[in-house]
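I hope you will forgive my troubling you with a question about protein structure. I should value your view on which stretches of the chain appear to form regular backbone elements. Here, with my thanks, is the record as I have it:
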Amino acid sequence: MGLRRSPAPTARQRIGPPVVSQLPERTDAVVIGGGVIGNSIACQLAEAGVGTVLLERGALGSGSSGTTAGVVRTYFPGNPLISSLAVRSLAAYHAFTERTGFDLGLRRIGLLVLFTDEHQVQDFRDTQAAQQAAGVDVELVSAAEAARLNPLVDERTILAAAWSPEAYACDPAAIVRGYATAAQQAGAILRTETPVTGIDPDGRVRTPAGSIRADTVVCAAGPWAGTVAAMADVHIPVTTYPVEMLLTDTPDSAPHNALPMTIHPSSLRIRSWGDRILVGMGRPAPDETRQTWLQRVSHHLGTAFPTLAGDGLDHGWSGDLDVSPDGMAFIGRDPSRPFLYAAGFSGQGLCQAPAAGEIIRNLVLDKKSWTDTAGLSTARCLSGSVETG
């Protein structure tokens, strides 16, 4: 299969904030990382009256925030805790737009998760009550109904599907801009092109532009979170996972309205992207050639969505995600120093950013959150008892 190149979408464009010329000598909190997580944290800290400085090594939103498929959703199979954070975050996004008038680019498209064998169907039935208790609107639908919701699905290849209407296509750059703007309006200082080069035991954060002393340091550095944490002698067990998004043509037979985000058990996912279709399935494995990977993507496309068989794939954009061992984010504080972290979102940061910002804000203010957040700390993996979800 030949690979054609296509211009990167707007979600990957640089987001330019005002840049301060000089760092203040000290502040209440330094947030390291200028993606959607860092800007949500900075916004909520500043709005709570906490003196906040955000440091970003490049441009705002230039890391993981622009690497995903650009969908915020509430249903995460098998993990009602993540779902509960996503439900709270979606409500916060709607409230943010109503409160500030800032358009976050949310357009409801729905989420369809395809099931190809009985154990997947049974797993859904076993966890549906917990998902609904977390606030998720999700139901089991037949193969025929799944094909009605997304006419590209071949109902003969699936048994059933989970349908969750509360999933929204979004503009990640608009979400980052919205939180960055609100953070600045609340008094936060945002400094881009300012990588952190060291973190001293007394809370002094060092950069090429000078240093700043902080009562609290918050690491929201995405794929660089492990490196940043190590500067403070803190271990966050995150790794980077490279992903590439592809684009293909929409068949003439496809409906004119937007297709839902649709996830196949192979990890293949598609959704409408303007007048084209966005395709994601990671990147080649370490021992796999690019051509072999593209053939594998093409095979799954042709199996799950026959009308896409044989279509060419264009390069859309690529980048790195910050991934935890169990796929669930780390949000918490180091027990021995004023160092907080929000990392390892495993491609789900857009869906959880408002809730993550709220949890970090409450930790800084020593306030209780709406849910038990103990399971989000790094202790669940560092203790050797990794859970899957």
